[in-house]
């Protein structure tokens, strides 16, 4: 644009004029010139028509013509440079080009030229503007001035001014207005001055030098008796608050606050008293309320922007507010004659103290507010506490029906033009309540306590205030119904206090300091205790108050510190009989509610709501191991089950609604309420399944199928168990699946079917409702991310008891043809379609054959880590034969004498599984090939095979330890058994010697010496009546008697596996297989003598022990294959308590257990040992416990697997021997301590695999590398000191029904 013609100038002027006309409203509304500049600078962000303006188009074209070619060249250069440097990113290119362009000569010349052009255009526009202005003034001189008697109209607005008004309003004009606003001036003059002031742009008014004087004049004018005049000033204040910056509105606010403060202090003003109340139709009261409301509206808005301004501005606003609210009149002797203070009027317009809530929200303002309250205005807090105390005293002294008159705002809003004294006191109380509640949330707010009150001995501490709140929940009147309408606010003290306490519960620091103490807990529980005891004081307690209290107790119980308080109190050593803890009181009350044993609530419609609320508290307690232990004596599971059965019967009697009948709606509502109550009770029962022992109690009720069905329905709807459950259903499902009855319940409910369907959808089908815009990506991981969740769920569900119950005696379909639309529905279907692919029909039925088969092989690898599951699958489906055949089919014949295996994902997976299922041993006793390929020439150096025996590279060399019997230290232990000391002395002596050697020389406790030690120790114990737990059983069968008896195919395979392991360790010789077979047959006959009679529904209870006897196999190896020594040891060992926990078949269908425990199919290992593992894990290793919950996996399931197979494949043989010996010598409770020690050893790896979301797989597949029992003996000793009395007491009680 070297040539700039007059036509171009005119065109640009029009473009600029169009731009300014379009943004006129935005600019005129700006409070200052700087703000107007900011609006123009950010116009592109705020104006959607920005790019349509002609001036913008002109600039774009101008830049394109001038710099376009240069920009294109720079783009090409930057792109080529970027490709060479292998950097990526479009943003980088743009930044480089922009920088070079701005530094170029062409850019600088263009800016200089453009500036010159725009200077000419703007000067021309300004000249034309001055000419237009003179023309307008001449016209005004000729036109008579129109006078208006109207000083202001309701439609007036600061937006009525034009863009040019800012040039008209000058200093002289403002001075004239100041003079005209003088109270001595006539009314019309003052009105006209105010009219002019209101129509002027606020930015010009506030930027004038006389603004401070004007502000003082306006403050004085607020006292004008003319209501219209004062209203106009308030409207000007409101406009100023809306449009002006903080440093200006601050002066307006402080002047208004000061005016109100002087108004209340002046004796000339007629301020209402408590006796007269407030009539808001009174003009004086109306004006006063308008001022207070304007003040309050600004209080609620100012926190949103005061952080952008200096702290002194905010401090002045806060201090002027507190100064106003601290105004107190001389108190009369009679409360009714008291003159109302400003706080009453503020409470009237903002009952819930929203202003205080907003001021306390941000640290920036909270710091100043709390500092001022502490140093100068603590009287405000004192007055608020005093008001709460006064209201409580009023509640105590008046009957409930009288108190209802003082809570008109409870649950509903109604139009009211007159507020009585009691109503004003009530509003002030509500305001004080909200203010104190917000204060307690913050640490420095709590430091303002204690508070000293007048006419009261002592001070009100923080705990005293919270106790007062708790008492107010019970004593204050409340709404007749719990639910209030959604559109109305609830001003019930009980609901508001409950909300305050809920907020405190949700913040750990607050809860610990405020709520977790005996004093407050006793205040919350006192009325409940009265109801349990049936005292007269109980009649003051309403159902609504109880529901509020239950909600608070639920939140307390859902946090570890709060649960400990409820279980043990602050003094954990106090006697429960003398001072029962909160958990006992809650359990007693809940039991009475369930049994409808509280006369006060007889026939109450709200009884189910109260019962449900307190059962939610109980859930938080009995959902933990330690809580369940404390609540077992109350048999809540039985009470809940009875209530559920009663509710089910009642719901069946509800008549079917008849169309056209008037009672249809009421019957429908009744039916819905009944169904909801049934579901709540089932949900309460379901939560017992959160712990192993709780699951036993649930199965005893006979409602497990209904509970699991409810869980599945909630799972299908994506609902949580309750609002305090953090990690969904994973742990409950894992606990349920660890038992045979639980597995059947999962199957009948449809849970397993849904799980398999979801898996198949992700694995084979893909989602039908997703529009396919591009081909599905090929999975890189062995298990695709979309299938990972289903994989982990199946791993959790397929525990050994579950697999046996769901798969035992089930044949595979092995169809000749499979439809592509045929979806598996059961575990056997999954085995048939994904694992045992032994036909072309199965392979062709899969869309993603390799991915799906790898999924099945990975699943097989995990579930076969349970040796009982492995033996079952091998016995029924010959899994290893199938895998070997598949490997054989994967051979490529390169020549007549050369055959190579094809190495692919499937052959590598099969190779790993074949080695895993054939070799038995701990981490140092077998070598498992990896399932990944290596980089380099030979990606898989491990030999693949298609027949047994295994290649030698998978068998590490195991050297047999020399016989350690002659070791001097060990010899010291042997004479202990020959001494004639007192029984307890020699037992303790043996324990001490064993512990000493385990700590110093653990390796010598092995071999024949260990076998001899065990024999002698068990012999002495079995001869001591006090040490014998089970009665002696006469057994005289010979080998000839049992020789012809048959063992199950699982036992037979287990014998082969044991002998193979024993020979590998050089412990067994040829012929050991027959000897072990005879030992197992003798054991089976011996244990059948103690079986309980009856017909049992579970498959696992319909014959002998369903798995292999791993303890007897371990003992047989320990005795070096000596059949006679093994049988003699077992007959004596069977009398001891420890046999119930080491020898699992010992209590299979045993008459020594309660019949309902036997029918459940749950072994004491599960409901006793693993139950305490979880309890101790939570106390000793909270991070590990949380990791399990986050993973949706229960520690009990993996512990059950470890213990069931006597740690085979998880520990080396020497450690297995130490495990057995430690439990025999030191007691069965050491089984629990050993599991805790293992988790302590694995803590870091557990946390890492929790983050990787494969904890279940890691724990089941991986051996316990690096774990040595001797390393944790000191730690286990400390666990014994802390927990032995509780554990041994429970272990001794396994024969008792109550458990």
How would you summarize what this structure contains?
The chain is mostly helical and 1299 residues long.
Can you walk me through this structure?
The chain contains 64 helices and six strands. It is mainly alpha-helical and 1299 residues long. A two-stranded antiparallel sheet has the order 1-2. The chain has a two-stranded antiparallel ribbon with strand order 3-4. The longest helix is centred in the N-terminal third of the chain and has 38 residues, at 105-142. The chain starts with 5 loop residues before the first helix and ends in a 7-residue tail after the last helix. The model is unreliable at 143-168, 399-404, 408-414, 479-488 and 962-966 (pLDDT under 50). This is Protein broad-minded isoform X1.
Keywords:
single chain; 1299 residues; mainly alpha; two-stranded antiparallel sheet; two-stranded antiparallel ribbon; 62% helix; Protein broad-minded isoform X1
